[in-house]
Amino acid sequence: MKQECYKKVERMTASMRIIHWANAIFMIVAIVTGLYIGEPYYQTLIAGPAVHKYVMAWNRLGHFIAAVIFDVTSIIVVYLYFFSRFEKSYKKLIPSADNLHEFAEVFLNLITLNRKKSFDSSHSDSFNTVYFTIFHLLLIFMLFTGLQLYVHGLESGLSSIGSWWPWMLHFATDWTIPATGGNLMTVRIAHHVTMWLIIAWIVFHIYYQIWRTIFWQEGDLAIVVGGSKFAKEQK
Amino acid sequence: MGKDTMESVKKLFTTQSSKVDTNRGEAYYADLYNSCRKRLDELKALPPINNKLDLQAALFDEGIDRRDFLKWASATTAMLMLPASFTPLVADAVQVMNRIPVIWIELSDCAGNSEALLRSDGPKIDEIVLDIISLEFHETLQAAAGHQAEKQLEDAIATFKGKYILFVEGAVPLGMDGQYGTIGAKAETFKDHLIRLSSDAAAVIAVGSCATFGGIPAAAPNPTGAVGVMNVVSGKPIINIPACPANPANMVGVVLHYVLTGKLPELDSLLRPKFAFGYRIHDNCERRAHFDAGEYVEEWGDSGAKNNFCLYKMGCKGPMTFNNCSLIRYNEAVNWPVGVGRGCIGCSEPDFWDKYAYERPMANANIKAPSGGVEKTADEFGLVLLTATGIGIGIHAVASAIAGKKNSEKDAE
Ligand code: SF4
Ligand code: SF4
Fold it and tell me: What domains, with CATH codes, occur in chain B?
């Protein structure tokens, strides 16, 4: 057997890991409550008049809280794309020759089932960065369409925090109506279908990280727990 | 970037919201009051056009007394979002509505909006008020037919050039050069007919979902290429009063507003009067408490239905529909769709037949794929996507495991 030596590489700071797990937990909250809002899949079995139970209302509250948390983490993530201590992600998105080459190599590694692995796996590669960026774009689309659906209920132009809020929501999200097909329902359909895209994204994401850990033998899964992984020393 | 693209981008970012401004301050209303008073006095001095119907007598004949009439006037004032001090003005304006000539045409439609005016259980104030407008031409209602009718139309256009209000009921078929709908002995297409009549009108009012957004004639696959009035007429003030049928109260509201102020009411981005379409069904629905509580009718006639539970799971589209039927209801506030126990089908929204009226929650509905043809429910689509992902992952995982095993065997050798 070959002799291999490993070096430890820092990949995620504590705050990045917190963001990751906050996103993960609240994505589950958003999906569970969102499916209920789309079509209430369990019945309220509490006896007594409607004033004492708020099943749909609690679901909506949970959904909106999750949305607000995504708002905040998204802003931080956008910031990190440009100012992160590690590889600034935006650099991996520029379609330069290096990045395209790396993207192709990582993709080949995946489809040749790890037979071919000729790229530096100690840092975040451009294939993964593109994949994460797709997630963030889906999430941002969800935020805009979701806020558009939300502002329908503030039609008086007032809200508990002032009239600037509905105004701002209209200003920022009214474009989603023409962009999704022209009416309020198409916004809702787009919001719902995008949820399925995100679920599919998550499934592959989890699989791919586990796959890397098993086949690369570099402890990739540890990145999101302890913040670092081990890369084989290039000799 | 071409000019068209620029325009559409600009439009994208300046779409008006449906926000309703219900209080514009004392000074604004004082001004408005005076100008309305002046306008009404001017109108009163004019002779009634053709319709000599005396409103008071007509109301009395139907057993409606002055008190009922004033109640109606104050409710209508509130509906138009004017302060209560305008009530006497509204009551006055009704009396002079026969000074405004109206021409009513029908295109691709079922005459349902005309029916809505005529077939109430007994004419109520809204319907009687519409009786006193000076209806110069209405294909379905008038006695004249054939050449006589055409002559009547020409006369009306000539006499009231630039002054009449054109009510349009029904969509405009544009397919095959408009040949799907023609009118009169000369086979004038609906499109030409509409353009000719609107060019001499003071304003065009599209009533019903077909005239506003194409409605049912424009439902997929829209064989006749039907569109709404606003896609055909340009350069004229257009008001859309959608819904299927449009609520007579809203038609009266718009005409009254015009008589009273000489102006059209404030409109939203879909050209609908904000006083009627500024609020969402769902927020003024009597079943809303059950929605928040999570109490839904699960199937027709179940115990939830008997307890007036929310109709969301039966496909109610109140949460995405802007209209005032949950407030003013139909047939002089007798009832409205959700009130009788069936969900809203979003009849006042664009594309309602394809996107709203499937009577089940959206997640369960057959939605046209953008490519056309295949219909999939949103959730089926999601499950197919997930299954595909799962199968892909499964194959990849098994293949990787086998490949990995071979590798380690090789290493061990
Ligand atoms: S019945 Fe329809 S409009 Fe009324 S609360 Fe339920 S979903 Fe909303
Ligand atoms: S409840 Fe909905 S479908 Fe029924 S009339 Fe009102 S807007 Fe139209």
Answer: 6-12+279-364 (4.10.480.10), 23-276+374-412 (3.40.50.700)
Q: Where in chain A are the domains?
A: 13-202
SS (H, E, C) B185-242: CCCEEHHHHHHHHHHCCCEEEEEHHHHHHCCHHHCCCCCCCEECHHHCCCCCCEEEEC
B281 Cβ below 6 A of ligand 2:
yes
pLDDT, average across residues A22-42: 93
**Residue B207: alpha-carbon gap to chain centroid:** 7
What 3-state DSSP class applies to A144?
A: helix
Nearest to A192 among B8, B363, B404 (CB): B363
Q: Which residues of A touch B411 (CB under 8 A)?
A: 1
Rounded to the nearest angstrom, the minimum Cα separation between A146 and chain B is 13
Q: Is the CB of B347 under 6 A from ligand 2?
A: yes
CA–CA distance, B78 with B71 (Å, rounded to integer): 11
Tokens of B264: 């059209």
A13-202 CATH fold: Fumarate Reductase Cytochrome B subunit (1.20.950)
What's the Cα-to-Cα distance from B187 to each of A22, B229, B412, rounded to whole Å? 67, 20, 89
Taking residue B352's Cβ as centre, other Cβ atoms within 10 Å add up to: 27
> Strand pairing partners for B137?
B103
User: Residues, chain B, total?
Assistant: 413
Pairing label, strands B101-106, B165-169: parallel
Determine the average pLDDT of the residues in B207-217: 94
Average pLDDT over residues B188-195: 94
Q: Report pLDDT for A1.
A: 47
- Residue of B279, B284, B288 with the most ligand 1 atoms within 8 Å of its CB, for mutation: B288
DSSP B283: G
Q: How many CA atoms lie within 13 A of A145 on its CB side?
A: 25
Q: Is the pLDDT of residue B120 over 70?
A: no
Q: What is the token pair recorded at A3?
A: 């002799």
B15, pLDDT greater than 80 = no
Alpha carbons B39 and B44: distance in angstroms, whole number: 9
List pLDDT tens digits, range A165-195. 888 888 889 899 988 888 889 899 999 999 9
The interface pTM score, or ipTM, of the predicted complex is: 0.87
Q: What is the pLDDT of residues B318-327, one digit of tens each?
A: 999 999 988 8
From edge to edge, which strands make up the β-sheet containing B101-106?
Answer: B134-138, B101-106, B165-169, B203-207, B238-241
Q: B309, B295 in Cβ contact below 8 A?
A: yes
Return d(Cα A216, Cα A219) in angstroms, integer.
Answer: 8
Q: How big is chain A, counted in residues?
A: 235
CA distance B268 to B256: 19
